[in-house]
């Protein structure tokens, strides 16, 4: 178990900068999720932490010890891959035992540790099989077993659930969360799936283009996105973004007018409204009216695509208990405090 | 669709009604004919080699030829294995009559030593080739070091030059090293021929092994040697067997370098000695063919021994699937 500190960690491939002076401190026992689209540098970060790639610049510290130039097999980290990466020529038992054998653990100790890990992951009955005889979910359990069987400084997970089908992904997600609670170890988890990030993380680092866009708790990132990219990346369905400008303490776009008292006048801005931040109209709320174009019931919720004022097209969650029909009008209430404002030029949050 | 079924040709009158049968029959026959032709083409010379080695010289050179030995005889093989016992004097130098098969070419006693030389050289080449190529291919395929591409292209460029152009320079180098007429000279030379090609084969095979397996092995605690031994070796068995076979056969069949670099029975290999039989004043074809049969035994054994290893699909189940 370890505190992992990245200091100005940089990785360049020729002219391409995959990771640009990353500063990141992952606390002991923390579950850190690196979230971003492909090519954002999240996997590169993981590879650098594992030692599978060499940093172009910067330092990496485990518990204060400089490990920047330490080869992967001496860093004591465990890794789980999207492709499972089980050794196809070894049985499940041997796959899990492999890290222990390399550490010259006594035979009895290996037997005990492998059995314990297998019991914990409910794969004890599969120990004699080979990887190709297993299903995807079983394979990923074996890969987890191979990681937890020793006592690594950190668990590194590279999109471990991306190859599994939706139902399995949910159960494996809670399995990983349970493992984190039981092991109290440092987890670094790479994903492009916002739901995984939100459910698993203590803190999320949203990345793009080799830079961290925002580092915060899941709630923080969702409630106060630092810029337009983060706002657009998290949330499903995605946040509604409306361009306009600030006039007389309000956001204005043609006839659309929403209060924004703290923003400086004359500024070109983008307003963000999450689909779920609308309610039934009430005195303390600002009314918002439009015409329902499309209704998408999901069972738990119903979303409507609404053509709103000033030529906007909005996705809104229909308040509980409402019945809406396509082609009919709709009026909802918006809490001004839940609106997000971004500067149109810098794309940064302003309120 | 079996061949027997195809041969049930329909009566002429009904051929039109069952149209698909005729083309199918034609195709089957054509396939069978060409397969047969191909087998004859490939196996014919070998069959004749074996058949004539079991005949006397008179039978082997008869017109029309005896496709099968009329009275199979092991006299040629006996002559080969007894050649060493014979004392050649001025009087006995013409012993034996080519027509009866008892004829022994000069140098016949060199056949068995050269067989041994060929085996020794071939095994060394196969083993060292694998050792050198394996490590080189791993480094080039897996480790991202500066100059990796340049290394690969340099290795491949050496194979663009025809061997014959290398004969004289190699001769000079080997002579300078004082290795002329030694097995070591052949081993070194053959490695120069086989290693670049083997590196190339192994690199493309290694690159087919999922990179995540390498990452997993390194993180699990393997150094580069460990990753090579624990992941790449077991998963590339078919390629290793192919490399081993390739190196042995190249060495076994090589002629030009051996001709230039060796001078006598100390180091001459089988192809050199056998070719010497044909250049003699009198050629005993049955004897030469018997020598030929002996020459193809080791490669055939090798093929039979290793054929079951040349199976792919070993990586099935390594990654998603």
UniProtKB/TrEMBL annotation, chain A:
Report the family membership: Belongs to the ABC transporter superfamily.
Q: Name one Pfam family in it.
A: TOBE_2
**Which species is this UniProt entry from?**
Caldovatus sediminis
| Protein's UniProt keywords contain Nucleotide-binding | yes
Full protein name:
Glycerol-3-phosphate ABC transporter ATP-binding protein
UniProtKB keywords: ATP-binding, Nucleotide-binding, Transport
Any one GO molecular function term = ATP binding
Domain (ABC transporter) ranges: 4-234
UniProtKB/TrEMBL annotation, chain B:
Membrane topology according to the record: Multi-pass membrane protein
InterPro entries, per this entry?
A: BP-dep_ABC_trans_perm, MetI-like, MetI-like_sf
Q: Which SUPFAM superfamilies match?
A: MetI-like
Annotated ranges, domain ABC transmembrane type-1: 115-306
Q: Which residues cross the membrane?
A: 28-50, 121-143, 155-177, 183-206, 231-252, 285-306
Where can this protein be found?
Cell membrane
This protein's GO cellular component annotations are: plasma membrane
* Family annotation (Gene3D superfamilies): MetI-like
Q: Which UniProt keywords apply?
A: Cell membrane, Membrane, Transmembrane, Transmembrane helix, Transport
Sorted alphabetically, the Gene Ontology BP terms of this entry are: transmembrane transport
- Family classification: Belongs to the binding-protein-dependent transport system permease family.
Q: What is this protein called?
A: Maltose ABC transporter permease
């Amino acid at each position: 178990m370890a505190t992992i500190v990245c200091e100005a960690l940089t990785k360049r491939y020729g002219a391409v900068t995959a990771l640009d002076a990353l500063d990141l401190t992952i606390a002991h026992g923390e579950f850190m999720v690196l979230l971003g689209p492909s090519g954002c540098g999240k996997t590169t970060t993981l590879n650098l932490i594992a030692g599978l790639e060499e940093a172009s610049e910067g330092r990496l510290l485990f518990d204060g010890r400089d490990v920047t130039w330490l080869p992967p097999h001496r860093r004591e980290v465990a890794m789980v891959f999207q492709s499972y990466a089980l050794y196809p020529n070894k049985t499940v038992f041997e796959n899990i035992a492999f890290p222990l054998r390399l550490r010259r653990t006594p035979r009895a100790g290996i037997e005990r540790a492998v059995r314990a890990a297998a019991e914990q992951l409910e794969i004890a009955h599969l120990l004699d099989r080979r990887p190709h005889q297993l299903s995807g979910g079983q394979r990923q359990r074996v890969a987890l077993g191979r990681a937890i069987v020793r006592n690594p400084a950190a668990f590194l997970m590279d999109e471990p659930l991306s190859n599994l089908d939706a139902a399995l992904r949910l159960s494996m997600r809670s399995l990983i969360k349970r493992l984190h609670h039981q092991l109290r170890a440092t987890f670094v988890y790479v994903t492009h799936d916002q739901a995984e990030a939100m459910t698993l993380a203590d803190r999320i680092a949203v990345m793009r283009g080799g830079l961290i866009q925002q580092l915060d708790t899941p709630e923080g990132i969702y409630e106060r996105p630092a810029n337009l990219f983060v706002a657009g990346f998290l949330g499903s369905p995605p946040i509604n973004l409306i361009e306009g400008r600030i006039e007389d303490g309000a956001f204005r776009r043609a006839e659309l007018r929403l209060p924004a008292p703290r923003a400086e006048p004359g500024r070109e801005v983008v307003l963000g409204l999450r689909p779920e931040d609308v309610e039934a109209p009430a005195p303390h709320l600002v009314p918002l009216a439009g015409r329902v174009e499309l209704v998408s019931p999901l069972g738990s919720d119903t979303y409507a695509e609404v053509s709103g004022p000033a030529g906007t097209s909005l996705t809104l969650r229909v308040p509980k208990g409402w019945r809406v029909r396509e082609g009919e009008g709709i009026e909802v209430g918006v809490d001004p405090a839940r609106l997000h404002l971004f500067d149109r030029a810098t794309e940064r949050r302003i309120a | 669709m079996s061949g027997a079924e195809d041969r049930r040709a329909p009566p002429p009158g009904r051929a039109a009604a069952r149209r698909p049968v005729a083309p199918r029959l034609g195709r089957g026959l054509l396939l069978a004919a060409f397969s047969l032709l191909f087998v004859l083409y490939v196996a014919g010379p070998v069959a004749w080699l074996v058949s004539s080695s079991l005949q006397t010289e008179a039978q082997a050179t008869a017109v029309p030829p005896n496709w099968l030995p009329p009275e199979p005889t092991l006299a040629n093989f006996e002559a080969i294995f007894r050649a060493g016992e014979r004392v050649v004097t001025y009087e006995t130098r013409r012993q034996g009559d080519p027509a009866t098969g008892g004829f022994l070419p000069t140098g016949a006693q060199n056949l068995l030593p050269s067989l041994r030389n060929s085996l020794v050289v071939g095994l060394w080449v196969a083993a060292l080739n694998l050792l050198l190529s394996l490590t080189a291919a791993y480094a080039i395929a897996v480790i991202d070091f500066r100059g990796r591409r340049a290394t690969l292209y340099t290795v491949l460029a050496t194979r663009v030059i025809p061997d014959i152009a290398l004969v004289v320079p190699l001769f000079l180098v080997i002579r300078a090293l004082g290795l002329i007429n030694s097995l070591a000279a052949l081993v070194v030379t053959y490695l120069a021929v086989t290693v670049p090609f083997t590196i190339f084969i192994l690199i493309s095979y290694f690159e087919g092994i999922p990179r995540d397996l390498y990452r997993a092995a390194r993180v699990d605690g393997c150094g580069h040697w460990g990753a090579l031994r624990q992941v790449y070796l077991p998963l590339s068995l078919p390629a290793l067997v192919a490399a081993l076979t390739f190196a042995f056969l190249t060495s076994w069949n090589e002629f030009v370098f051996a001709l230039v670099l060796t001078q006598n029975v100390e180091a001459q290999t089988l192809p050199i000695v056998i070719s010497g039989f044909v250049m003699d004043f009198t050629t005993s074809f049955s004897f030469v063919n018997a020598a030929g049969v002996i020459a193809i035994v080791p490669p055939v054994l090798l093929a039979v021994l290793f054929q079951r290893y040349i199976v792919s699909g070993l990586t099935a189940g390594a990654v998603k699937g």
